[in-house]
Amino acid sequence: MILPISNTRNRLLRSMASDDLRTISRHLSPARLDLRRVFEQPGRRIEEICFPETAIVSVVARGSDNRGIEAGLIGCEGMTGVAVVMGDDQSPNETYVQLAGTGAVIAADDLRGLILASSTLADHLLKYAHNLMVQTAQTALANGRATIEERLARWLLMAADRVGGSELALTHELLSLMLGVRRPGVTNALHKLEGGQLIRAKRASITIRDRPGLEAIANGFYGVAERDYDRLFGGKTMAANDVEPAINLAGAAS
Amino acid sequence: MILPISNTRNRLLRSMASDDLRTISRHLSPARLDLRRVFEQPGRRIEEICFPETAIVSVVARGSDNRGIEAGLIGCEGMTGVAVVMGDDQSPNETYVQLAGTGAVIAADDLRGLILASSTLADHLLKYAHNLMVQTAQTALANGRATIEERLARWLLMAADRVGGSELALTHELLSLMLGVRRPGVTNALHKLEGGQLIRAKRASITIRDRPGLEAIANGFYGVAERDYDRLFGGKTMAANDVEPAINLAGAAS
DNA sequence: CTATTTTTGTTCGAAAAGGTACGGTTTGCC
DNA sequence: GGCAAACCGTACCTTTTCGAACAAAAATAG
Asked: Which residues of B touch A93 (CB under 8 A)?
């Protein structure tokens, strides 16, 4: 029940040169990405890298104390392990699955070899790494200057882009960890959004009803990194992603 | 009064392979980096890249409205223009000199050529680019979770590392722009630090008196990116930088 | 040495967000 | 169906930060 990787829903894979895609496909394995599956950990060598399809993976920065915050969000438009693309073998950030789904994984060593062998592949992945850096800079901006409501709107839009759908299965608690705010603060902000008919919230599930409305609420804190991605990887807006997932989870690899 | 680039005080240059340093030196020009000199601007092609020596350059992220915030700080440990190193030719962030001083500049096109010609050079600069990404992630963390006092302590430590000295010539106003907070908020936090004998503040000048004390106040928000830099580029701590500047600004340094 | 600009000190009230606690729902499990 | 766990709604008071305005001090220019 596993379709070939070349039909993957991951945009970063799909937008690479067909030669590169063919080559990398031989090393990629379709995988179910379960909640909290870890891809990077401070002080540990990165062993595996993933290209999400319907899952969302978070990059979380931590200080020397324990409090963390999300510094990057990765979905079907990207990949984990940009440290490897940039010639390092580890990162001080944690990277783990935030919203379960599917994706394709590859051994870090394999990817290193492929990058050495194909400069077009290296270029392609490096451009994404730079876009992720831009996203992180925008997150720093939002964390410093936006209200909880604005940051929440931004996060929901980004997440919706990355799963290619409008329903997000996550709890207030998770959102509060990502945004680095109090859990009731999230509840409160969600109520405001729901009051404006911008989202519908059920238990552990948020559905976007009015994208333009959300973008207006996000008040300029959403969009910079996304437009830069489109400039680099082609015009289609991120949200327009209605391809079927490459992996049919019925009986897929555990 | 301009010494050869090979004696530069820039650590990123000094730590590269001697072949690469020799080659790149032929394209580098020593330069005075005056306040507000711009190296990158959203939507514009990056033409010139600099390796600061005694200057500090800021990467500032802006949203679609006008409010910006510092997302990266670059001094004698790094370089501007990581977008170019990563195969792009522009960035949505602004990059400009925050604290005047000296440095070396190179045309972006020249650097592109050198990177293509030397994979060891490319590797070296890419590692720095990754470190800058880590720094930005830590900034996102600090912006989201630290108090003004903690963020200020962090910023002062980072800036002192990057100028290789303990005196910083800047105003509360500038700091408030970088940190994205109210100007009186900076004044207030500086008073607290001064009360604890951690700094001495004069008009448009802050001197660090007690580094360990400042690190304690920074409360875990300083150090992660710095330790990662040392892991990548060698053990010496950033602050230990007592080489003379390559450019003698006669009379400029009071 | 006076006038002007720049920088810093200080104040007020208001808004935003934090910490904590607890009650109410929904869900899932036995 | 009943119990436990997970998740959400709400309330309280405190702290932090903001916005705005204005006064004092230091540098600078004429």
From this structure: 134, 137
pLDDT of residue B158: 98
Q: Which residues of B touch A64 (CB under 8 A)?
A: 220-221, 223-224
SS3 (DSSP) at A86: coil
Across the interface, whether the CB atoms of B144 and A143 are under 8 A apart is answered yes
Of A10, A9, A5, the C-alpha closest to A128 is A10
Phi first, then psi: give them for residue A19, nearest 5 degrees: -60, -45
- Crossing angle, helix B108-117 and helix B119-145, to 10 degrees? 120
Phi/psi at B95 (5° precision): -135, 120
- Residue A216 sits at the chain B interface (C-beta within 8 Å): no
pLDDT tens by residue, A163-185:
999 999 999 999 999 999 999 99
Contact yes or no for B136 and A141 at CB 8 A: no
Of A86, A127, A137, which is closest to B71 when you measure between CB atoms? Answer: A137
Torsion over CA of A108, A113, A118 and A121, rounded to 10 degrees? 0
State pTM to two decimals. 0.93
Tell me the percentage of chain B whose pLDDT exceeds 90.
87
In angstroms, rounded to a whole number, what is the distance separating the alpha carbons of residues A43 and A21?
Answer: 31
Find the distance separating the first CA and the last CA of chain B, reported in whole Å: 17
- Write out chain A residues lying below 8 Å of B71, CB-based: 136-137, 140-141
Chain B interface mutation, best of A128, A145, A147, A150, highest count of B Cβ atoms under 10 Å: A145
Q: Does B139 touch chain A (CB under 8 A)?
A: yes
Cα B119 off chain centre by: 25
State whether B61 and A220 contact (CB < 8 Å).
Answer: no
A198-215 pLDDT, tens digit each:
999 999 999 999 999 999
pLDDT band at residue B1 under the 50/70/90 scheme? very low
CA B197 to chain centre: 25
Q: Which chain D nucleotides are covered by protein, judged by CB under 7 A?
A: 6-11, 16-21, 26-27
Q: CA torsion, points A220, A226, A231, A232, in degrees to nearest 10?
A: 140
Low-confidence residues in chain A, pLDDT < 70: 1-4, 235-254
Q: pLDDT (tens digit, 9 = 90+) per residue, B2-27? A: 456 778 999 999 999 999 999 999 99
Query: For residue B30, what pLDDT is reported?
Result: 96
